[in-house]
User: Fold Phospholipid-transporting ATPase from Cryomyces antarcticus.
Amino acid sequence: SENFSGDQGDRTDGEICFFQKGADTVMTSIVASNDWLDEETANMAREGLRTLVVGRKRLSPQQYQSFSSDYTQASLSFQGRDASMASVVANHLERDLELLGVTGVEDKLQKDVKPSLELLRNAGIKIWMLTGDKPETARCVAVSARLVSRNQSIHTITKLKRKDLALDAISLLHSQPNSCLLIDGESLQLFLTHHQDAFIEMAVRLPAVIACRCSPTQKADVARLIKTHTRKRICCIGDGGNDVSMIQAADVGVGIVGKEGRQASLAADFSITAFSHLTKLLVWHGRNSYKRSAKLAQFVIHRGLLISVCQTVFSIAAHFEPIALYRDWLLVGYATLYTMTPVFSLVLDRDVDEGLATLYPELYK
Assistant:
């Protein structure tokens, strides 16, 4: 993903600079040729750091004027406006940038992430991790978050370009059902395009799948694919702006209010402040909600059945004359009172205590 910090001009000497930051995969083709970028980002990723590359381009006033006029022209076009604006930026600015440096940030796990993931797994929930990080970073985070246990092997598929080799890459997993899959965005796209059914059929059987180097669109596509293939409910959890499309594609979207802003929580169905709150949301509130909704549905069916049986018997006795047994306020009053009372009882109804529901997450299953 690319973020433009725009053009910043130093008015004293008339020099104009364009700064750009982005993922190393995008920036490698934009910055001038160098011999250390790939090596340094790989070293940082192996330590579990999230990397970002920063580049700069100095523009003369003439170059800036040329870019400015083309960009203004593109922004006024009626058809393909976004594409034409992006092509102007690519042609004038996004080439031969001077490589300023690489940043590596430690993305610390929140409190109680490990026990939360373990509890959710015991509750029978399959967990996939979709991230934009490098494969090395994703592997470090997955192991430290206990998404992958120490004794599980990780089958890695990266930089797969040929579709004829795709099925061979996943054939090993059929003989290793307990191993996890680590796949990058490029390989994932190849599977989604050419071998969608074979891939998803195998992937849903695995204990965990880690998809790294994923674009926001890919995250949403994966969520939709799992939903259509398994016909089960999908819950997507995210904390950043790049998780919004995935959250909206899910049956239930959960946004975490964190250091990355509130975009995810605003787009989600539920907003939580810490990942560990997810366990209470699902194992306690989710379970109770499901049971109570089922009971209320039975009440409503019972109520409707009483009215319709009585009305049917009355109609037969009245030789099918169009006369209503329950008239106006009587029908409304009965339906309202009969449905209203159980709602109050259901609020207080609980089959097990909250502590027990958390202690035995298998109850959720």
